Multidrug resistance protein MdtH (Deinococcus carri), 405 residues
Amino acid sequence: MSVPAAAPPFRLSPAQLGLIAANFLMWGGFFAVIPLVTVHFVDGRGWAAASVGLVLGLRQLTQQGLTVFGGAWADRIGPKPLILAGCLIRTLGFTWMGFADTLPVLLAASVLAGIGGGLFDAPKNAAITAVTRPEHRTRMFSLTSISGNLGMVTGPLIGAALIGLGFRTAALAAGSVYLVAGALLAATLPHTRPEQTAGSGLAGLRTAARDRRFRRFTLVLVGYFLLSTQLNVAVTLKAVALAGPGATGPLYGLSAGLAVVLQYPLLRFVEARVRTRVALVAAVLTVGLSLGLMGLAVTFGQLLACVALYSLGTMLVYPTQQTLTARLAPAGLIGSYFGFSAISLGLGGAVGNVVGGLLIDTGEKLGLPLLPWLTLMLVGVLTALGLRWALKDVPTREEAEEAGL
């Protein structure tokens, strides 16, 4: 009886290091300028807050919509050209924002920035999959997520320092970061040409949409992304109500800081003991329960304790979700499946931004302050149950490796 060869240890290659570093730069550049858009154009220029909200919403809608197709194109030409083109276009978009003096110009610049993001988003995940062995993908996605959280922490600090030199300077600096990220990936990321299949390209999106198991997985995840937006909506509103406007700093700092420190060791601990699909279900359930507990918080310290629990759940969702997406995708259609999976983020994020505020307002009007939190907890429980159902036939990592996935 032959003994299967042991998997090689996880050591980062230049391509993987380049992807991690570039992801840090991308997130840092994004958060160095996007929070300043509201400050500059509403507080500094006196524009209506609704008009700036339209700018930011249009960028997100453009990026998420194009991400679906970006993944399909990656299956045709490979992820590297799309990532590099996306970095260049994002640079142009952010630079143009610095020179915008009317709403139509700012809207056009935000659309251009969104196009750039849509080009590199799903292809970046496809590139991670292509340069990482199946048994190491969960760890690689975790390290990429950590680098993004580091960028989320440092970006606003850099932006706040640059705004003293003017919004244009901050926008130019943020845009140039994407040029650095693109140059780094140009030097380290190989140009992998995907295996061409009859269903690759845009036809790959139809294949993903017709894959009943993956379609269920993607649609159920809408519930999770509805919950994940609440840190920016319902949780922020409660934090400000408990501790004033200055509460947002500790709130976001705790969430991102925990992810930087704990995500990788927590993932290693869970990965060694729990199957990936079970870990995802448990993580989503943790997010839902933590939101329910937030309704009982009467001090800012209690709320932060709930946010810590919330963060433990969210930091496990990204790497497990991405790993399962790669496992479910057929050979040659990795990008299409990652692109199609962006639908859950787009729908969940859009609905969550509206529902979070609506639930808070409704709870206040009815005199039921627990209403939003219990509703969000119920969404978390239903989403966890839905994921358990949607993933019941998903192969384990060992089964997937035997099948060559």
Remarks:
- The radius of gyration is 21 Å.
- The CA atoms of residues 86 and 119 lie 5 Å apart.
- The chain has two domains: 13-192, 199-405.
